[in-house]
Amino acid sequence: MHSSFTCAGTLPLHCRDLNYNELLEFPGAIRTLGRLQELGFHNNNIKAIPENAFVGNPLLQTIHFYDNPIQFVGQSAFQYLPKLHTLSLNGATDIREFPDLKGTTSLEVLTLTRAGIYLLPRGMCQQLPSLRVLDLSHNQIEDLPSFHRCQRLEELGLQHNRIHEIRADTFVQLMALRSIDLSWNYIQFIHPEAFVTLHSLTKLDLTDNRLVTLPLDGLGGLTHLKLQGNPALSQPFTKESFPKMRVLEVPYAYQCCAYGSCSSFFKMSNQWEAEDMSPEEEDPHKRTMELFPGHADNHYDLDADDLQLDLEESKLHPTIQCTPSPGPFKPCDHLFESWIIRLGVWVIVLVSVLCNGLVILAVFASPSYLSPVKFIIGSIAGANMLTGIYCSTLALVDALTYGQFAKYGARWETGAGCRVTGFLSVFASEAAIFLLTLAAVQCSISVSCVRGYGKSPSLGKVKAAAFCCLLLSSVAAVLPLFSIGEYGASPLCLPYPIPDGKPATLGFTVALVMTNMLCFLTITGTYIRLYCNLLKGEFSAVWDCAMVKHVAWLIFTNCLLYCPVAFLTFSSTLNLFLITPEVIKSVLLVVLPLPACLNPLLYLLFNPHFRDDLRLLRQKGQDKGSYPQSCEVDDMEKSSYDSTQALVSFSDIDHIFETPDSLGVHPILDSYSFPPMTLVPCQQRVGTSGKERGFSEHCPCLNDSEVLIASESRDPAGSSLRIAFFPSPPTPPYTSHL
């Protein structure tokens, strides 16, 4: 920010303050003021500075043009002002060309900001041999000339331009240059010898450029260095590279690992603008209190010799304020800083990959009937396996970079591997939630359809709905790749907000969590209603009790384990991180993927379908996938008890066996085209009286004879269907899982 100009304390004949006068034109009367030394025109509407504007004012030392829409400057406007010391043309100016400053050999401070300048004259420094401060910020400069003739130049501001490279001769032999600001440009290349001759350089700002490497030759005297906003610059820096460094700002926290975690030493004051105070100017007592605050309240003085030694040591080893600071989400040595987390992640990897693979094998490779709900459970297992693969990737990165993660942390965050890993994580978690929602909706629609129409939705429709769920999950996982959210905010590759992280991921994460909570509310409400009706026995004839209970357990565990993630998201929305970063990291690494290993365990341990499917799978392997064409009666009965899936809906069986004498071939069977299948009877005895019609009120069962459709065989005319009847063996009461 420029300082305001006033004529306070100056003789009226030597100063003119024409600020805030709404001037539309340059006042020509200025030429008649021969003794004028200071002149201020800022905050007016002057659009042009004419030729010979200051003729007749050879004593002018300071000219300020702040915030004027200047579009034209005459070539001779500022010529031959031998005593001109300060010239400021900053603000809303658009002169486009560098003004001719011939004869202004005493000019020391030149400010030309927001002037639209796109080219600097090669002989600029020949005209301005006394120049000490040059501010050319907020222009359109693309190419820099050599400043080697500006031998007295101390400060150079070139921020907010379009500079692409720094050549070897750009700053050559500028022995007095102390500060260079090249921030907010497009610099991609800096010559390795660009800073070699800058022996007085202490401050260098290269914020927000496109640097890949930074040449370190000639930068040993730097005390302030800014490199933030260069995502491709991931090279490590050592203490030996900058022995005098006090303030260092780098793109990645891993580059601060060589200087230790500096968060406790970082001050929010502007250390860049603070002037360096020489040791002779410092108050020894104040310096002592800053270095040793613990002694401020003591009632005795430090020993003089000890104090001198401590001061000398502090000068030899100054504290470096390096930002951003390393932390739990930017570790220096290990990605998993705790062995408990490391072991927990490996357990999740092994259990999720093995158990979900077993569930997928049992569901899709078993010869038993694949019901819609069972298909969804197998699809959820596939999504959970992807979560296990995500965790295994992080575990491998932790193992391969063990003890030296800082060397590879920046490249891992910005690389394609982290983006692919994050995509897998979001896709897997969202697919599992959407498929669980589909299971709830399918169950609700199935019950309504069975009660109203006597049949449930086909498996093909459920597969189409599952494909839509996967498509939505893919869209959610792709968005962070297009800057809606971010996968590289941390080495965990998760688009979740973290302490001291970028706020870019917050909106995406909140939307994601709100969508997931809506899904959980939907499936919870649906299953509460279905489960209550199941307990009443209303759907026992058309519903798979085991699958309903299993999905209910999935809902409970997934909702419970998702609560900490939702809590963290909303806490970050309010900027209230109520728990430590270490705990947040543990939640994201262990609690978030935990459903991926609990879901298959619930299926393997508590769902009887798995044991039946596994038994059938073993039988299929033993028989090499084929069964005899003719079977004994005992084998047929055994298979009827082993199978757990009904292939003919009980609503259709009710119509087939509606009369007591329906033990023969019913005419309605002619209208059905049955594939080769096995009809598994409901093995719950309801009575033995002759008045019963073969099915109970709640569970339609055969009481005297169990029906087993062994195979479909047609005569040459293709019109007959064989049905074999076998008596029921004496078994205890058993409820079928349909």
TrEMBL record:
UniProt-recorded Gene Ontology molecular function terms: G protein-coupled peptide receptor activity; protein-hormone receptor activity
Subcellular location(s) per record: Cell membrane
A GO cellular component entry from the record: plasma membrane
Ranges for domain G-protein coupled receptors family 1 profile: 355-603
UniProt keyword annotation of Transmembrane helix present: yes
Keywords: Cell membrane, Disulfide bond, G-protein coupled receptor, Glycoprotein, Leucine-rich repeat, Membrane, Receptor, Repeat, Signal, Transducer, Transmembrane, Transmembrane helix
Sequence intervals crossing the membrane: 339-363, 375-397, 431-453, 465-484, 504-530, 551-571, 583-606
Membrane topology qualifier: Multi-pass membrane protein
A Gene Ontology BP annotation from the UniProt entry: adenylate cyclase-activating G protein-coupled receptor signaling pathway
Main subcellular location: membrane
Protein name in the entry: G-protein coupled receptors family 1 profile domain-containing protein
Taxonomic lineage: Eukaryota, Metazoa, Chordata, Craniata, Vertebrata
